[in-house]
Amino acid sequence: MSDFDSEAMADAGVENPKLPPHLELRRTRVLCKADAPTSTDTVQYSGAYASLGVDNSLRFDDFRNNFRVQVNRISHEDMEFDMVGVDPSIANALRRILLAELPTMAIEKVLIANNTSVVQDEVLAHRLGLIPIKVDPRLFDYLSENDTSNEKNTIVFKLHVRCAERGQRLTATSNELTWLPKGSELLKTSESLTSTSKPETYTSFTCSQDSMPEFAGNPISVYPDIIIAKLGFGQEIELEAHAVKGVGKTHAKWSPVATCWYRMLPEVVLTEEIEGKKAELLKQKCPANVFEIEDLADGRKRATVARPRACTLCRECIRDGDDWEKRVSLRRVKDHFIFTIESTGALPPEVLFTEAVKILEDKCERVISDLS
Amino acid sequence: MEHASFGDQRNATFALAEEDHTLANALRFTLNQDPRVIFCGYSIPHPSEARVNVRVQTTGDPAREVLKDTCQDLMLTCQHIRGTFDNAVKDFRMKNPPDDLTSQDMDSD
Description:
The structure holds two protein chains of two kinds. By secondary structure, chain A is of the alpha+beta class. Chain A folds into two domains: 2-100 and 260-338, RNA polymerase, RBP11-like subunit (Gyrase A, domain 2); 104-254, DNA-directed RNA polymerase, insert domain (RNA Polymerase Alpha Subunit, Chain A, domain 2, Beta Complex), CATH 2.170.120.12. Chain A has nine helices and 16 strands. In chain A, helix 4 (88-100) packs across helix 9. Chain B contains three helices and four strands. The relative contact order of chain B is 0.15. Chain A: It is found in: Nucleus. Chain A: This is DNA-directed RNA polymerases I and III subunit RPAC1.
């Protein structure tokens, strides 16, 4: 990653007049010493450097000029990207929204008709809840307390498995969950006994979900091959699972990400030339293989920092005495985040991030409208 | 939203319902970047109550207006993040077409 070298970083934070270098270093870098990291906080107050004549306020134009995103890896399930020029408070807000406030669909209600397996009903229901459902939650509404389950807020799945072969064991996986686009098939028993009208089920769908344009030819499925229960001979599970929309802060089963995290960009600087035996030693010390040996023209060997991104901050390289700590400076760039998102499958990771930013925008909008 | 300021419009505490560190910390950062703000901070009075108190003290402007401007700033920031991110993803897709597309030879190069 040559375009993320330290010179480019220093140029990015142009301020007039500039802070003295030792303060600029503390403002923009976390310094990792052998005992503990220092200068870990970000200087937020706009007048923090007023006595030096330096304005610490952030103009929106400055942000716009310096903010960069670079995607490193992207697939259906996960992505990694660099987000540069943003404060941890905003990066963290986005991470928190991804984990806890982006809605997905998850099984919330399980109607168990029969369960003779060794897995108890409540454990079974909990296991079902955690199965990711591959459907865009934006197509559904929240089911509030007084709502009836309909085709806009509920997805119904059926599971009916039975181990019929003597001496065999049957593994019920999430593949056996079948989508019921027409809603529940279980009848409310009390109703059907007393009234002569059409028997009621546990949902009231006005139309079949597979007739909706979003799902026509695109049936709703769940994440495959997740083991739900193992059945012995004669054991049977018959149930219906109702999935509704929710967010991760209510229960982790609604979290759209398996996990989502960021780390600050590691920066490794050799403050003096390290040559010969010491260079070999330094290369050997590092378990993450950050350093490389460079052959100089006159036959000498010099240590270079080849892969700073691999640095895990184990501090193995600065452990043996003060002189090593003087030679090698381990830092983290405070405004450079390596962001990783692992989706559970409901939405692709890049859509998740965009949606998370939209949620933060909505929050701001709500405060504005409350204030006006 | 509750809004407690005693006579003086420059100093106020805003209680944001149904919010937590997610918004409050981002707001605190954005407020601090505004030169009109002398002090700002937030607290969550009780962990089982979904509420944050945001304290704003300004050099002269009404705190309410400053907070409103700050929210606007944060929104603009978000929009810029979203735009930049979408472009970066598009760029990446252009340079690294997915495997199933390369096999179909959809790229002109």
